[in-house]
Each structure stands twice: as structure tokens, then as C-alpha cells.
């Protein structure tokens, strides 16, 4: 079992034991066989979690990730088997990062989420908060930060505030997370919640949330699948703490919970 403070390697579990989950360092990890099983595992988990949270509050805030792994999850949540199990009118949607491309571009994370999920469930449009790509990158980052800080006050009655009820994250094959890439100083941002960054390697701007805002999430769930992620995963979870090389290591929730949902291929190099 991988154990890093309050980080849990929780790669998957079958539907018939979802309700038996106990968030505990002593819990042995169960790894999903493939992306299909992983997606169903997480879909059941999120339905259960949203239902529980909404018993005590009137909204549920979720931060979405881009990429192929969550795409399969989003498709499942929009399916007949799942979409009627969530009170979508109480869901408020955000994104962890965005490529600076038009909304009509297939590389746009928001477009993907709309195509496979948001266009198929009854979330009020005013509760969906896209990262804008129709204004300059720096202006977009500042605008999104204002939205987040209005939603999530840092302190409430002198008690440390939290941000998202649930944040989904992916892991790149180079161990990047959000748009925090190896070798970029942005990994160590301490104050701003949202930043624009130009990636020389990709010749593109991105607008990204930073570690401070994500680490205030109540729950964070990494979704990782595929053999091409195996090296990155073992470095992030079992290697030395070197976030400049493995940026995903910078994700350490202060008072929240961190889950890792992975499939067998991605977990192939983890210690047994």
C-alpha cells in the first residue's frame, strides 16, 4: 500500500462494496482492471459522495479535469444508468485548467465536458464557470481568480475556509498536473489561485489553477490510466519529493482527503 501522510492510493473498488468504503490509511488499495472498470468505480463513488454531502449543504462544487481518462467518466455520468442519481441543479462546475484555444476547438477542456456531460444533464448555466479563452490569458486568469475567491472565502468566522467539494485531477506522463509542468516556477506559486502560463514546448498559453487553491479542496481525486503513466505514477507516489521534476507531488490537501484511482496498467510499477 502506498502511504504518504494523508494521501491514499485508492485505485478502484467494485460497485457492490462502494458503501463499505472507509477512508483509512489501513485500507488496502484495490486497483481497477482497466479504464472501463475505473470509470464505473469512480461514477458510483461520486454519486455516493454527492448524495452524502448534499444532505448537509445546498450546493456541491466540483472542479473538472480534461483528458481522455475523465472523458470516459463524464460519458458514464451522463448515461441513463447514472444521470438520474445526481441532483444536478445543485452542482456548481469549475475547471482546473484550460488550453488557450477557442471553445470550438477540440483541444478545449470545457468543450469536451460540454460535449460528453454538461449538454446532457440539467445544470443551470449560471452554475457552470468556464475559464474564458476569448480574452487575453492574463485577463482570463485574473477574472477566474475573482470568481473563485467570491465563491470560496478564505476564512469564515476566523475558521480556515475550503474550496471545492471535489476536485478531479489527471496525471501526465511527465508527472505534470493541471498546467503545472516540470521545470516551471509556477509549481511553487504560493499566493495566486489562477495563473496564465506560456508552455514553450507546446507553443500555447494555458490558464491554470495553482496548488494553493486546489490544496484547499475537501476532496481531491486523481484518475490515472494506461501503461504510459506507470513511470510518472511510481515517481509521484513512491519516489523522493522533487516537485520540480514531478509536479503532481505538490498536491497535498491541508485538511482534505486525497484519493488515487488507477488501473492495472498505470499501477504496474508500484510496490506490491
Strand order of the largest sheet: 1-2-12-11-8-3-4
- Secondary-structure-derived class: alpha/beta
Tertiary shape: globular
Cα-atom Rg, whole angstroms?
A: 17 Å
Count of DSSP-assigned helices: 6
Kindly give the count of domains: 1
- Summed over residues and divided by their number, the pLDDT gives a mean of 89
In total, the number of strands is 12
Q: What is the N-to-C order of secondary-structure elements (H for helix, E for strand)?
A: EEHEHEEHHEEEEEHEHE
Helicity range: 10-25%
Percentage beta strand: 15-25%
Which regions are unreliable across 5 or more consecutive residues at pLDDT < 50?
Answer: 1-29
**Remind me, CATH topology?**
Rossmann fold
Largest sheet: 7 strands, mixed
Please characterize this protein's 3D structure.
It contains 6 helices and 12 strands. It has one domain: Rossmann fold. Strand 11 (219-224), helix 6 and strand 12 (257-262) form a beta-alpha-beta unit. A 7-stranded mixed sheet has the order 1-2-12-11-8-3-4, with helices on both faces. The chain has a 3-stranded antiparallel sheet with strand order 5-10-9. The protein has helices spanning 35-53, 68-77, 109-116, 137-151, 211-214, 230-238; strands spanning 3-4, 7-9, 60-64, 91-95, 97-99, 155-156, 159-160, 166-170, 194-199, 204-209, 219-224, 257-262. With 272 residues, it is an alpha/beta fold.
Amino acid at each position: 500500500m502506498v502511504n504518504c501522510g494523508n494521501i491514499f492510493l485508492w485505485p478502484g473498488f467494485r460497485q457492490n462494496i462502494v458503501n463499505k468504503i472507509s477512508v483509512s490509511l489501513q485500507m488496502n488499495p484495490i486497483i481497477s482492471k482497466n479504464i472501463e472498470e475505473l470509470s464505473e468505480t469512480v461514477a458510483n463513488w461520486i454519486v455516493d459522495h454527492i448524495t452524502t454531502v448534499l444532505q448537509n449543504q445546498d450546493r456541491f462544487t466540483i472542479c473538472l479535469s480534461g483528458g481522455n481518462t475523465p472523458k470516459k467518466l463524464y460519458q458514464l455520468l451522463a448515461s441513463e444508468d447514472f444521470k438520474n442519481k445526481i441532483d444536478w441543479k445543485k452542482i456548481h462546475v469549475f475547471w482546473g485548467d484550460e488550453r488557450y484555444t477557442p471553445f470550438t476547438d477540440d483541444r478545449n477542456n470545457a468543450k469536451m465536458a460540454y460535449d460528453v456531460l454538461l449538454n446532457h444533464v440539467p445544470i443551470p448555466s449560471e452554475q457552470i464557470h468556464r475559464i474564458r479563452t476569448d480574452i487575453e490569458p492574463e485577463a482570463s486568469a485574473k477574472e477566474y481568480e475573482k470568481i473563485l475567491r467570491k465563491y470560496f472565502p478564505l476564512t469564515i468566522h476566523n475558521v480556515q475556509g475550503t474550496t471545492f467539494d471535489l476536485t478531479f485531477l489527471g496525471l501526465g506522463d511527465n508527472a505534470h498536473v493541471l498546467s503545472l509542468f516540470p521545470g516551471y516556477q509556477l509549481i511553487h506559486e504560493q499566493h495566486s489561485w489562477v495563473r496564465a502560463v506560456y508552455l514553450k514546448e507546446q507553443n500555447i498559453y494555458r490558464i491554470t489553477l495553482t496548488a494553493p487553491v486546489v490544496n484547499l479542496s475537501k476532496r481531491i481525486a486523481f484518475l490515472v490510466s494506461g501503461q504510459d503513466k506507470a513511470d510518472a505514477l511510481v515517481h509521484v507516489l513512491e519516489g523522493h519529493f522533487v516537485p520540480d521534476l514531478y509536479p503532481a507531488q505538490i498536491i497535498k490537501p491541508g485538511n482534505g482527503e486525497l484519493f488515487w484511482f488507477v488501473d492495472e496498467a498505470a499501477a504496474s510499477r508500484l510496490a506490491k
